[in-house]
Amino acid sequence: MNFLKQSVKLGGQGFLAVCIGAFGASQPGQAAQLADGMVHFIQPPALMQVRIVPHQRNVPSTYYFTIEVPANAGESLQRLTISEQTGVDGISYDLQKTRAFEARPLGQQIPVDSVMLDPKSRTVSITFSTPVSPGRTVTVALRTFRNPFMDGVYGFGVTAFPPGENAHGQFLGFRQVHLYK
Question: Any idea what the CATH number is for the domain that residue 87 is in?
């Protein structure tokens, strides 16, 4: 994917509000690697929840994505992609306000290296400064400039990637949020 249209390099000063449960393998760093060098999760992470606060249309809000990575995942979590799959109007994200945090309710912040948006595919890519190690739960918070003008159902697809250049993304599923008047 080409994410060069809009991106934010957050480095050490930005934190992404992500609640991703990462439970490590019994031997951290040990991952499944295919013959072609592709690295993948042994046990895929799970998309636990997507919620929005507030859920009114045409107001600023925050979209929260909660993910758990099982103890036998075999690898840490390096990157997430969140794609707006359904909805009448595109969501206008304030990428510089993207945050991540561990556990529930609001735990320790997790540093984010970069947040990029591909407006054509309506996909946001979040890369952590340091991979989220197994055994942790993470929530990502994407802030908007405003919610869409149209109320209705907005659906998202989430994909998780382990570290490495040859990382195989694991699609975690779809979730929906409802915007009201």
Answer: 2.60.40
